[in-house]
Specification:
The complex is a heterodimer of chains A (372) and B (90). Chain A is α/β, with parallel strands linked by helices and 372 residues long. Chain A is globular, with a radius of gyration of 21 Å. Chain B contains two helices and five strands. Chain B has a five-stranded mixed beta sheet with strand order 2-1-5-3-4, covered by helices on one side. The chains are: A alpha/beta (372), B alpha+beta (90). The interface between A and B is large, with 47 and 25 residues.
């Protein structure tokens, strides 16, 4: 079989006389799964599936959270000799949205009920919402000033899977604001330091680390990791434009934040529903007008405020509640203690998310941003 | 006079001021007046009377490019914000 799109919808999957194979992690399976499905985590498929399902002609439907991992595993099944394997589009999230049944430890266990009790008390979150958070995967670009508070609050809230992309190491000048790291972590890779802090905070969370800088070469691989949302805490323009284009093409919402000195900005880019970063800022400023925090400085608490606002938007999107800041750019001024907002409209002529896109593959982002 | 908010990255061009009064009934007149008094700012964002592409101007929370551009009307009570992108995150 070819490696082109091989998917069927949950409706067809439910009717089909096939074995459902859940390729998610143990933690995700425990939260909820489709009744009668076989659970084989993605990393164990090659080793364990042949023993569990010796009949290679048996039809198999793989599923995961939203349908990315289950599609990516198909070539492995082909290589093992399975003749009729297909992925369920939209994953268990789409399955549940259609009202189809799932099995779960119908109540959260005692430890989780205790840990998340303040969420369970809120009608808008409750047990269903908490279970939803435990099944949500959020990718953080950067474990620095903005990434620190958002990672901590998302992990504390019980977001089940958190990815961290950062190629930097912890430096003592980071500790004035990057509360994810500590003096003991000086010199260690930030992704690893972040992983340690998050797992100490909440062992329910699976932390996936990428000790690399986001580039045109690795962005497709990293974004294909079945992420529901991305929180952008990058520190430079090339990464932000690269992430924008990639997130539009991968159709993943981005919670954007940026900071400088006493001022910060937050918004949500939801591909095709709202504007993208290029609709807001078609061009970066020239390098001399784009100093980084390393050059211009930043009040230590500012990323705490802006990163927390990003976590707030991410949790709302994950829970499907409230009014996410789609099409609205929030402007925070720490000195004036003021929060303003301006409207951001989708640009039909946008070269990436517009009606007739002219940019359809990755460009030289460093060059586009004036050489830095 | 209308108050124009200056972003942190352009304050070197306005002598450190974060908000500057300017007069005019349209964005163009406002920018003419403002950048007339701060020539360094003119060079940065308004050379030859054209608004640089990397700066957004908001009047009452709306990007003037989605309205009447430099002809967008302003009043004394309008909130006018100049805003280029910021990249900082760590």
């Amino acid at each position: 079989m070819s490696a082109t799109v091989r998917e069927i919808g949950p409706r067809e999957a439910r009717e089909a006389d096939a074995l459902l194979v859940d390729v998610r992690s143990d933690e995700e399976w425990k939260v909820s799964h489709i009744p009668g499905a076989l659970h084989v985590p993605m990393s164990q498929v090659e080793e364990r599936l042949p023993d569990l399902v010796p009949d290679r002609s048996r039809p198999i439907i793989t599923y995961c959270a939203v349908g990315a991992r289950s599609h990516r595993i198909l070539p492995t099944l082909d290589a093992l000799g399975y003749e009729d394997a297909i992925s369920m589009a939209g994953g268990i999230v789409a399955w549940r949205e259609l009202g189809f049944p799932v099995d779960s430890e119908s109540r959260l266990d005692e430890d989780k009920r205790e840990r998340y009790s303040r969420h369970l008390l809120i009608p808008e979150v409750g047990e269903d919402g908490q279970r939803r958070l435990l099944e949500t995967s959020i990718l953080l670009i950067g474990a620095g000033g903005l990434g620190s508070p958002s990672a901590l609050y998302l992990a504390a809230a019980g977001v089940g899977r958190i990815g961290i992309v950062d190629d930097d190491v912890v430096d003592s000048s980071n500790l004035q604001r990057q509360v994810l790291h500590s003096t003991a972590g000086l010199g260690k890779p930030k992704a690893r330091s972040a992983r340690k802090a998050l797992m100490e905070l909440n062992p329910d969370v699976e932390v996936v680390t990428y000790e690399e800088r986001l580039t045109s070469e690795n962005v497709d691989r990293i974004l294909a990791g079945d992420w529901d949302l991305i929180v952008d805490g990058a520190d430079n323009f090339p990464t932000r434009y690269l992430l924008n284009d990639a997130s539009v093409w991968h159709d993943i919402p981005v919670v954007h934040g940026s900071i400088f000195r006493f001022e910060g900005q937050v918004t949500v880019f939801k591909p095709h529903e709202g504007p993208c970063y290029r609709c807001l800022f078609p061009q970066p400023p020239p390098p001399e007008l784009a100093p980084s925090c390393a050059e211009g400085g930043v009040l230590g608490v500012l990323p705490g405020v802006i990163g927390s606002l990003q976590a707030n938007e991410a949790l709302k999107l994950a829970l499907g509640i409230g009014e996410p800041a789609v099409g609205r750019l929030l402007l925070f001024d720490a000195l004036g203690a003021k929060l303003d907002e301006v409207r951001v409209r989708r640009n039909p002529d946008c070269p990436v998310c517009g009606d007739n896109p002219t940019i359809t593959e990755y460009i030289d982002y460093v060059d586009f941003c004036g050489g830095r | 006079m209308t108050t124009v908010r200056i972003p942190p990255t352009l304050r070197a061009e306005t002598g450190g001021e974060s908000a500057v009064p300017a007069s005019g009934s349209t964005v163009r007149e406002l920018l003419d007046d403002l950048t007339g008094r701060f020539p360094a700012l003119r060079e940065r964002i308004y050379p030859e009377g054209e608004l640089a592409r990397f700066v957004n101007v908001y009047v009452e929370g709306e990007d003037v490019r989605t309205r009447e551009g430099l002809d967008t009307e302003v009043s004394d009570s309008s909130t006018v914000i100049l805003l280029p992108a910021m990249a900082g995150g760590r």
